[in-house]
């Protein structure tokens, strides 16, 4: 959760169950509003800035480009106008993945820098990739949510050394794993009304398997250079198989 990336999945099971757990939708109030016209939205600086930064991320960021290609190969092609939505959100979150609409929400009032947009889009695309490739029970199985949050924190660049230094967090050996675990727990607590102990238990029970699930990167991309290499390797997978 980056200033908090949160993943509020689909709004199934509404009614009494929703009163007990709103699945994080309280953080994304625009999800419940009637969509504004393009003309009205275009008048707001936040929305324009969000759209421009999103386009820059999709066109130039190797993390996002790899995930978009991987989703396309998995049969889940992502379209800018259909699968991304710039909206105003609660002040504590930067983005979320809504599996009801297969849509990534970008918090236009909280994302102010291109580097932040890059991380948010990558983080949420990992959730979208997991939703595409696996039967994720976002609502009833907190372990499934924990696994995707672990993968998103591990592979999106959330826990790079520079980002941790910017948060005034300086660790020794194993700091990356500690950062991934802590951020996964925070994300769960942001979108689920569960105790901290429940979130910690879910993360700990799936941590090893999900931390070591590096698809589609094949490595932990600690930098854009790593991400570019991973992207090239991904593009060459089919070619190498064909030449065999």
Automatic annotation (TrEMBL):
Its EC number is 3.4.24.-. Keywords: Hydrolase, Metal-binding, Metalloprotease, Protease. It holds the Pfam family Peptidase_M76. GO terms for molecular function: metal ion binding; metalloendopeptidase activity. Residues 1-13 have a biased composition (Low complexity). It comes from the Eukaryota. The keyword Protease applies. The keyword Metal-binding applies. Coiled coil: none annotated. Belongs to the peptidase M76 family. This is Mitochondrial inner membrane protease ATP23. The gene is Atp23.
């Amino acid at each position: 959760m980056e200033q908090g990336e949160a993943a509020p999945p689909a709004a199934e099971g509404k009614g009494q169950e929703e009163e007990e757990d709103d699945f994080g939708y309280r953080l994304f109030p625009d999800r419940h509003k009637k969509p504004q016209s393009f003309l009205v939205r275009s008048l707001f600086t936040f929305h324009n800035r969000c759209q421009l930064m999103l386009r820059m991320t999709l066109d130039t960021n190797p993390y996002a480009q790899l995930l978009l290609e991987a989703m396309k190969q998995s049969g889940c092609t992502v379209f800018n106008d259909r699968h991304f939505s710039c909206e105003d959100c609660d002040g504590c979150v930067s983005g979320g993945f809504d599996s009801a609409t297969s849509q990534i929400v970008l918090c236009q009032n909280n994302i102010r820098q291109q580097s932040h947009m890059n991380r948010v889009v990558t983080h949420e695309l990992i959730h979208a990739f997991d939703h595409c490739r696996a039967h994720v029970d976002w609502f009833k199985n907190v372990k499934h949510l924990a696994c995707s949050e672990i993968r998103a924190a591990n592979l999106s660049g959330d826990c790079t050394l520079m980002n941790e230094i910017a948060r005034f967090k300086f660790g020794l050996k194993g700091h990356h794993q500690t950062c991934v675990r802590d951020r996964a727990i925070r994300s769960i607590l942001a979108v689920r009304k569960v105790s901290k102990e429940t979130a910690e238990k879910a993360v700990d029970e799936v941590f090893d398997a999900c931390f070591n699930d590096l698809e589609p990167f094949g490595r932990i991309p600690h930098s854009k250079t790593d991400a570019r290499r991973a992207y090239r390797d991904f593009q060459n997978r089919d070619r190498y198989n064909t030449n065999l």
